[in-house]
Amino acid sequence: MLEAKLEELRRATLAAFTDAFSLEELEESRIEALGRKGTLAQITKDFGKLPPEERSRLGKLLNSVKQDLEGEYERKKLQFEQADLAERLSKEWIDVTLPAPNPRPGNLHPVTQLQGEIEDLFTSLGFAVLYGPEVETEEHNFDALNIPATHPARDMQDTFWLGDGLLLRTHTSPVQVRGMRELRPPLRMIAPGRVFRNEEVDASHEHTFYQVEGMMIDRDVSVANLIYFMKTLLSDIFKREVTVRLRPGYFPFVEPGFELDIRCLICNGDGCPVCKHSGWVELLPCGLVHPNVLRLSGIDPDEWGGFAFGLGLTRLAMMRYGIDDIRQLQGGDLRFLCQF
Ligand code: DAH
Hints:
This protein is about 40% helix and about 20% strand. It is α+β, with helices and mostly antiparallel strands.
């Protein structure tokens, strides 16, 4: 009797497993046959009352039925799982070589854009473009520019000193020195780059900003040459007439020295934070190269002369794009930077 029941259970359950269409159906059939209250459990309930030989014979049969069913169940389950995985892989397949949706195009920083334009302009005028090191020697940054250790001009700039005669350059003027020593006269060069000053940061001051140094050395260079190049530069950059004024200015490395101011393009001279409410922006200090500076780089001032200028590139970018807070330029806010 029990034997027949066990054989029937094996047959029926194997058939149910074969017919199962899904993992759920398979699971249902397994529970029905092998679960704690399943058919097998019912059949074995009375095993204890059987005589011993009978019990061991049927026990073996029971084990074989159980093994068969469990084995078939595992095989079928694996099949379903593999089919399921294959289906998911085909549906959820991603082509990683496709472009991402709505890629945001990058753009150059406004200061970098302006620097590129200035480099192009001066290259077309026969100027070499030099990039000196940001970590400079005290000699290049000060001494060779006629700013000796005892000179009060040394205090005009707040320097980040690095020790061992090194510092973060406070201006791009040391590249003049490198230019004179490497290129030899006659020469025309510009030097765009980052400079550093130990400044309190506010709307118009940064500890890190950009300048473009310029220098021309030849046999008969005069203030007229200087003014010509400065006007060419400014009209090219602003693509319109700008009002300028020239004031005497003092810098140890030029004589005579000038401050070239332009009328503030943000407020048109009415006064705003950028021009410190004066209507004018100091943009272009310049002058004729001091004979000492030539001498200190091994150039004979009786034979050669030249002009030099130090353009405030960061300030120029602010003027051109109407940016009234210098802190935005290095703030790293893409919503701001993407506008240019
Ligand atoms: N190096 C000066 C500064 O950063 C700017 C400067 C003034 C540069 C006059 C020059 C110059 O070449 O002739 O304050």
